[in-house]
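pinging the channel bc i need a second pair of eyes. not urgent but kinda urgent?? the chain im working w is below, pasted from the shared doc
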Amino acid sequence: MSFPAQRPRRLRRNELLRGLVRETRLSAAGFVYPLFVCPGANVRNEVGSMPGVFQQSADQIVEECREIEQLGIPAVILFGLPESKDPRGSSSLAAEGPVQRATAAIRRANLKLLVITDVCLCEYTDHGHCGVMENGEVANDATLTILAEQAVSHARAGADIVAPSDMMDGRVGAIRDALDEHKFESVAILSYAAKYCSGFYGPFREAAQSAPQFGDRRSYQMDPANAREALKEVALDLEEGADMVMVKPAIPYLDIVRRVREMTTVPVGAYNVSGEYAMVKAAAQKGWIEEQRVVLEILTSIQRAGADFILTYHAKDAARWLKP
C-alpha cells in the first residue's frame, strides 16, 4: 500500500516555507496599549501585580507614548486615577481630570497615535462600582447621563475613540446622542459589548484603584457561563451606534470572539486582561515558561479566533519581538 499523497509536513520543513503559508500574521499594527494616568507631575509608580506596567502622570504618559509610537503600535487606551472620589464619580467629568489632561498632552505632542479613552465610573466613585448607587443597587438609567457627559469631555480633550466599559443598558445610544449633539460626530465608539464578570481583573483593580468596596459586579457584567447573551449584547450595541465591539477577557472567551466575529462585519477587539498578563509574567519570572514564545502564542490565538485588534499589556514587548 503506497503512502498517502498528502504529506502536510512538506510545508513545515523550514521557516521560509512555514512563513509563506502562515495563516495568521501577528503585527504590532493590531495592538492597543493600556495606560494608567494619575495626578501630579513626574510620577511613575510600578504596579506590584503587573511588572512593567505603571501608574503615570500625564507628562510621563507622553514620554511613554513616544516609545509606543516608535514601536509601530497605533493606539493607546487611557484609564484615569482621580485626585478625589465621590458617590457619583463627578471627577470623571473634569476638564483637568487625568484622562482629559493626558489626552490633551498627547495631542499637543503631535504623536501619530489613536487615543482611546475608557468611559466608566468605577475609578471615580468612592464605592468602586461602575454606576450610581440607588437603594443599594447600581442604577442603570441614572448612570447614563454621567457616562455621556464623560465621553463628551474626552472628545473635547481630543479623543479619537471612546470606549464605554460599564455594561449599563443603553449606554452606547446615550453616548452617541451626546457626542452628536456636541458636534463630535467623527468620534467613534468602541463598546465593551461582551464584558464578563471575571476573576481575571484583579491586577487591573490594583492598577486603577477601582475595586468595589462592597458586593460585586455580577448584576451588570456578564455571567461567564453565557454565550448567546454575548451575541445579544453585541447586537444591541450595534443597533445603538457602536462602531466597534470588544470581548473581555480574551483567553477564556476565545469561543465568544469567534462567534462575535462570525455575526458581524464591524471590527472586533479582544482585551488580553491584567490577570492573563500577570500569570504569564509570574510564570516567566519563575522560569517555568519561555515568556516570548508564550506571549506570541497567546496573541496569535486571540487573532486567530477572530480579533481584528488586541488590547494587551504585552504590546510593547511583542512589538519588539515581531520586528524583522
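so The first helix runs from residue 15 to 20. and Residues 25-322 form a domain with the TIM Barrel fold (CATH 3.20.20.70). — does that match what u expected or am i reading it wrong
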